[in-house]
Specification:
Elements (H helix, E strand, L loop, with lengths): L4 H12 L6 E2 H7 L6 H9 L13 E4 L4 E3 L5 H13 L9 E3 H4 L32
Length: 136
């Protein structure tokens, strides 16, 4: 199966993350020009499993609060492999699989992070397709 054009852009962003730094699925999606597509980044990286590639997938983690990220792989073997690869690069991974983004987070130069929502501000809802709410 050939990766889609969008996945190729995700892979390009992931390749840009330097050794010893991490990013989040959402940040990769935003930098790829697809904000809100964090799950798609996860699917694109999971599709690499079992193939030879030069994409440092281990450097992409799930957002866990404002200043932390975490290993999100549910498979214990995969999570241990990601932890080991990150540790070899000098990234401190806690026993709970969390990483401090202030210390190890990567911010691509020239790109600003999205502005945080004001307290109490509701997140933007996603458009629903017909039938997604259970109604016709």
């Amino acid at each position: 199966m050939q990766p889609s054009e969008r996945w190729k852009v995700f892979y390009r962003v992931v390749r840009a993350i330097p050794r010893g730094r991490v990013s989040t699925y959402g940040e990769v999606a935003m930098l790829a020009g697809a904000p809100g597509y964090a799950r798609h980044v996860g699917h694109a990286l999971a599709a690499l499993r079992g193939s030879r590639h030069s994409i440092p997938w281990q450097r992409v983690l799930a957002k866990d609060g404002a200043r932390r990220a975490r290993i999100a792989i549910l498979d214990a073997v995969g999570a241990a492999a990601q932890r080991d690869l990150l540790s070899r690069e000098g990234v401190a991974v806690g026993e709970d699989g969390r990483v401090d983004l202030d210390a190890f987070g990567w911010r691509r130069s020239g790109r600003e992070r999205p502005t945080p929502r004001a307290p109490g501000e509701r997140p933007r809802s996603r458009r629903r397709t017909r039938g997604s709410s259970g109604r016709s």
